[in-house]
From TrEMBL:
<dbReference type="InterPro" id="IPR009325">
    <property type="entry name" value="DUF983"/>
</dbReference>
<keyword id="KW-1133">Transmembrane helix</keyword>
<protein>
    <submittedName>
        <fullName>Uncharacterized protein (DUF983 family)</fullName>
    </submittedName>
</protein>
<dbReference type="Pfam" id="PF06170">
    <property type="entry name" value="DUF983"/>
</dbReference>
<feature type="transmembrane region" description="Helical">
    <location>
        <begin position="95"/>
        <end position="113"/>
    </location>
</feature>
<keyword id="KW-0472">Membrane</keyword>
<keyword id="KW-0812">Transmembrane</keyword>
<feature type="transmembrane region" description="Helical">
    <location>
        <begin position="68"/>
        <end position="89"/>
    </location>
</feature>
Length: 137
């Protein structure tokens, strides 16, 4: 039947799959996508070469401009409607409106940027992209 065509390698690959959602949640918390305990970042945006807890190699990531692009996308799509609503409903002074939304945009951007970098690294790890595959290069 259909079980005759299944090899041992297929069973190993299926059993060793890296689940996407747990990895994304670990990345959002800025934790190692493998163990979830070790810190992913050594600074604000610097990804560690290896996890200090499980020794998973993390230097393979290629996050590049992805986190910055997603941060701009989310902040812009969230703050633009809020700016319009605040202006139409409350008609504050322009300097007050600018100050509030400038601080809000900067704060939200600083909050989201390292978390989105963790998410992108975790997605790359879960999908075995770039150098994250288990097979030798």
């Amino acid at each position: 039947m259909a079980l005759e065509n299944v090899t041992v390698e297929d069973d190993v690959n299926v059993a060793a799959e890296r689940p996407m959602m747990p990895a994304i949640m670990k990345g959002w918390r800025r934790r190692c996508p493998n163990c979830g305990n070790g810190p992913l970042l050594s600074g604000y945006l610097k990804v560690r070469d290896t996890c200090p807890v499980c020794r998973e190699e993390l230097h393979h990531h290629r996050a590049d401009d992805g986190p910055a692009y997603l941060t701009i996308l989310f902040v812009g799509h969230l703050m633009a409607p809020l700016l319009h609503i605040a202006f139409v409903m409350f008609r504050p002074e322009p300097l007050v409106l600018f100050t509030i939304f400038a601080v809000g945009c900067v704060a939200l951007s600083l909050y989201l940027l390292p978390r989105l970098k963790g998410v992108i690294v975790a997605i790359q790890w879960a999908r075995e992209m770039h150098g994250f595959s288990r097979s030798p290069a």
